[in-house]
Write the structure tokens for this entry.
Amino acid sequence: MIIEERMADYIASLESEMPEYLAQLEKHALENEVPIIRKDSQALLKFLIELTKPMEILEIGTAIGFSASLISEYMPEGAKLTTIEKVEMRLVEARKNLAAIKRAKDVTLIEDDALNALKVLREQGRRFDFVFMDAAKAQYMNFLENALPMLKVGSLLVTDNVLQEGSIIDSKFAIERRDRTIHMRMRDFLFSIKHDPKLTTSIVAVGDGMALTLKKQD
Ligand SMILES: C[S@@+](CC[C@H](N)C(=O)[O-])C[C@H]1O[C@@H](n2cnc3c(N)ncnc32)[C@H](O)[C@@H]1O
């Protein structure tokens, strides 16, 4: 928790109920330790989708399709969502869950490693007006390099889990040796999105930390 637990609970208590199928999907994910977007980040994601009304959305990291279902619930009529997942155990559930939503025909699940999928989407000349990045944290920099050229100017890249449960502020020597690479790469990623003159980024302490990045120029 990067904000006090009581505060997070209070903010969550103000949320209006989500559709029953989403509540069930969230419950199932939490009971089965599937890492999905947290309550307060859900509210921010929903808000940003309703605010920006994107028509071509890309999600990197589907898991079992919870955030993809949430996005599909609030995206405009006619909008399309492409979401990428590579782990078969997750895909088994994602296929089923995404086939059952109202907007199933507007959602495409790409079953591939994200880096590979992003390269294919680039070759196809695809462009997106909203990207939600929520996959392997150590690869964010690589995903960024491939996703950014496809993001339209004036559009948003939203990246989840950037504050790493608060450990992002710790010295690398305080981080377990096995987690040091992710720690270092996340810091590099944050430095890069904060200092690229073509981008404006705000890092917000919501959920596990979200970076909101506006692309200002190609
Ligand atoms: C945090 S979960 C995504 C949660 C989902 N966005 C949600 O909120 O419902 C991250 C997912 O990214 C997937 N993932 C990690 N690295 C990946 C890669 N290189 N290519 C495709 N999927 C990847 C993992 O298998 C995992 O299911």
